[in-house]
User: Fold this.
Amino acid sequence: MYLKRKDKPLDKETESSDTGSYYAGCETKIIIDRTKLTDVLDKLNIGVYIVDQQHDINYINPVIYKEFGAVSGKKCYQYFHDRKEACPWCKNDEVFSGRSVSWRWYSGKKDKYFSLFDIPLNINGQIFKLEFFYDITEQRKAERALMESERRFRAVFDSMYQFLGLLKPDGMLIEVNRTALEFGGVDRNDVINRYFWETHWWKISPGTQQQLKNAVTRAAKGEFIRFEVEVLGRQEETAIVDFSLKPLFGGQGEVILLIAEGRDITEQKRMQAEMEKLNSLNLTGQLAAVISHEIKNPITTIRGLLQVLKDKPEIKKHNELVELIISELDRVNNMASEFLNMSQSKPVNFKKQNLNVVIKRILPLLTACGMISNINVNTELDDIPDLMLDENEIRQLLLNLVRNGIEAMEPGKNLTVITRKEGEWVILSVQDQGRGISEDILDKLGKPFFTTKERGVGLGLVTCYRIAERHGAAISIETSSKGSTFSVKFNEKLNKDIGIAIIKEKWES
Assistant:
């Protein structure tokens, strides 16, 4: 960037490519006959003038005359700059000491930019300054227009919410927008001029890097590529991205650039999974209402008849078998009851109360459940605000999660019930010390009828999800080889809205 001053040179000296190439080969000192020199200079189509050490102009060629007019005995600083004394930016001292100087100057008087090249000139033993003027005003306008165009492009490029990058056909990243940099928590210098698959975003796994490398190879041949992929963000967080590579073609049909674009669809994927789960729950509820009704009635009849028959003398010898049948009927009946409980839209009794109080009330039962399996049940309860809760439902949710945790552990381990507040979230966690949950099972948790228990129904977690949903809460799972943590996250604002809706409903009724 060059600063524009009225009748002053541009602040920054530069070895100008146009003057440097034009005058390449000029000697720092030229000893020549004055007449022959002026004959040559008169024919040049660029401005030329000669000045002595007293700032007196000894010669101007026709181009300078046409641009600035007659000299009329003026000093160079008067002629070019309308100044009364020598210019502080003048290069005379350098030139008269034997140096050639290339620089740029803006003439406020003419509103033009000039590229200047000064060389020392020896004429009959006297040193003069020979200066060549080259009008670069149009070039400067083009440069400014290009800079403005680049500025506008950068502003649009950086403001896009998508992750954008430009690649050479070989996969070298040459440009990237601010959105992508901020997402990855990286600096531009960390990724520019590196192969795209070697940058931070793609280091999530060697397989992902190879997937991108193969995609670049195909895109460089003119193919449009698009796929969903998990990439790295800042602080090792990950995101699911809808990624594409679009080839940009040159005049001969060759691929000259690849446009890389990515959209973060993590939340969209999460919402899709939640919707699928809710749809599954709704369908299960509808099926449960029908099945439980059709099953419970005949089961009750059969059980009653068996109770009568087992007391008859001829049947008593088969009592052991009859008791087994009744036991299995009871199990089926319990399963049907769970179906029915899940399908029924029971009235929810929300009251403003503290989650810690509910936990303390049910703690003896939780402790007893743990003692049966030799599991220690502990609590870590922080200060948390009151919430709108249905105590019976929260007790059911907590009991289901604790039982699952106990069944996942070996005797002698610890299970901890935790409450805490994080921002606008009040969190209830049940933390076990089991072996953790494998990834293939983790994706299926909460789906109706899925269970890892030998005699399980697969509706315990389903019930927990429905209770959480009614309380404006969400369930998240963290697992490792050291154990699993199921967290129920109550959004304080959303929970308050539930309370307001209940109060309004009661007031209107």
User: Anything to note?
Assistant: Residues 160-264 form a domain with the Beta-Lactamase fold (CATH 3.30.450.20). The radius of gyration is 42 Å. The first strand starts at residue 8 and ends at 9. The first helix runs from residue 17 to 22.
